[in-house]
Amino acid sequence: MKITKSVITGGPCAGKSTALSRIQEEFTELGYTVLFISETATELINGGVAPWTCKTSDDFQKFLIKLQIEKEKVFELSANSMPSEKVLIVCDRGMLDNKAYMTPDAFSNTLYELKLNEVEIRDNYDAVFHLVTAADGAEEFYTTANNTARTETPQQAIELDRKLLSAWTGHPHLRVIDNSTNFENKIKKLITEISSFLGEPEPLE
């Protein structure tokens, strides 16, 4: 049995929702059981737990990491119990995304408090795929209308995108999917990169 855990990350309005739908479609056809761990920040914010409702923004990030850890444990245990030869766990953002929203000292203090190691967190994921925000290279398609938890201006989206990429830099299998092509080809490139990582033949038209 082969279980692979990957992260889909990137700046606001990068196409993650569409990407997740296509990953489900493409890799189910290739015989994978595909499991999705939904974005924890959006879950918490929509449930009333937000940076502006917690005592501090850093507290919110700490709660987010704690919940992410437990969600990933449950999905990994579930994957191990499934009668499937190939399981692909896809995380809509991973634990290192939090680093982009905190100062270096605050992030280090949070890891110390939770008894976590940054390199171990990073390498806990088999692969990381970073989708660049539409604000960087496809500005006309940038919008906040499709996610109530998203409030960034285009410039803020670009800055956040770069912080997120920096947080994951150093991962042995980090791939960046930019906006140098149209959106459909951006998604196809992502599927091709995932297929390559998994050792699967490239999807055919």
Question: What's this, in brief?
Answer:
The protein has 205 residues and is an alpha/beta fold. The protein has 7 helices and 5 strands; from the N terminus they run βαβααβααβαβα.
Q: Can you describe this structure?
A:
With 205 residues, the chain is an alpha/beta fold. The chain has 7 helices and 5 strands. The protein has a 5-stranded parallel β-sheet with strand order 2-3-1-4-5, with helices on both faces. Helix 1 (16-29) packs across helix 7 (183-198). The longest helix has 24 residues, at 57-80. It starts with a strand and ends in a 7-residue tail after the last helix.
List keywords for this structure.
205 residues; alpha/beta; 7 helices; 45% helix; 15% strand
Order of helices and strands: EHEHHEHHEHEH
Helicity range: 40-55%
Low-pLDDT parts are none
Q: What fraction of the residues are assigned to beta strands by DSSP?
A: 5-15%
Number of strands: 5
Oligomer: single chain
Strand order of the largest sheet: 2-3-1-4-5
**How far is the N terminus from the C terminus?**
28 Å
* Global shape: globular
Please identify the structural class as seen in this structure. Answer: alpha/beta
Q: Count of helices? A: 7
For the sheet with most strands, the description reads: 5 strands, parallel
Q: Mean of residue pLDDT?
A: 92
Rg computed from alpha carbons, rounded to a whole number of angstroms: 17 Å
